[in-house]
Amino acid sequence: MRSLWLLGLAGLLAALCALSVTTGSRDVGWADIAAALTGGQDNIGQAAVSLRIPRTLLAVLAGSALGLAGAVMQGVTRNPLADPGILGVNMGASLAVVIGVAWFNIASAQAYIWAAIIGAGCTAGFVYTIGSLGRGGATPLKLALAGVATSIAFASLVMAVVLPRNDIAGGIRSWQIGGVGGATFERILPVLPFLAVGMVIALLSARRLNSLALGDEMAAGLGERVALARGVSALGAILLCGATTAICGPIGFLGLIVPHLCRLLVGADYRWLLPFSALGGASLLLLADIAGRIIARPAELDVGIVTAFVGAPFFIWVVMRQRIREL
Q1: 139 lies in a domain?
Q2: Where, by residue number, does the polypeptide cross the bilayer (predicted)?
Q3: Owning domain of residue 270
């Protein structure tokens, strides 16, 4: 049954990719799509398809990365509220990039990516440390509060860094919304190795996450090195979050929504949950991008706005529904 659900989700993603290429301010036919795939740009329709193909690819990559990272973070922290946005990881990556642009004049794609990954890693460690203080250790509530507080503080710091710099303010504010518009293959290529390594590490962490779900003492009794398991799994999530934020900006709530929906289909076994979360994240982000193009025609809404509209009520529902302290 799970295999059929996985095939169905892959089919849904393929259908959304086709819809993404054909839908926008100008609808195009299959003849224009076929011509654009062979490099043709003889009319406006073919030119539009040439722009939508890398945009679709970026949405698939970013969505799968964020969905996978959210599932891993929930497993590492055993926190049903864990998400790259809620835990402040995306905003930490954003702050690092903004500081790099404003103070160190970084301009290359590699510099953006490394800055974002370092910022994401430092923020993840900081939030987990703060959330672990006091009685009870790193409970879901304490981690969520530490993450939200850190995210708000870092957002204020981003504004403080950007405000005196009118030369970069416009571009930074647009990037902070989170979106996949303007994607090109040249922009996507530098981030592919980081996403590939992050996805491999995350997918190979399934057995470790299943052990961690039993509790630290039980996992240690089964021969699992708990600290190493958490560290390696978190590294995969940090690479995915940092690389995605560098190229798309911070996109919130996707890593929270997707793993919860996938658990309804496949349960809590991470051997199935992780690939489902990757496909589900790609499908949801692509659907959000398509919806943003349709709702605001002939303009468009960035995916960061669409996911926020969907994710905020979902977050409230999870908070009200989840009375357990850990997964």
Answers
A1: yes
A2: 55-73, 85-106, 112-131, 143-163, 188-206, 227-258, 270-291, 303-320
A3: 2-20+54-321
Structure tokens that stand for 174 in this block: 């647009």
**Mind listing the pLDDT tens digit for each residue in 220-278?**
887 888 888 888 999 999 999 999 999 999 998 898 899 988 998 898 899 999 999 99
Domain count, the chain: 1
Chain segment 56-89, per-residue pLDDT in tens:
999 999 999 999 999 999 998 887 778 888 888 9
CATH of the domain at 252: 1.10.3470.10
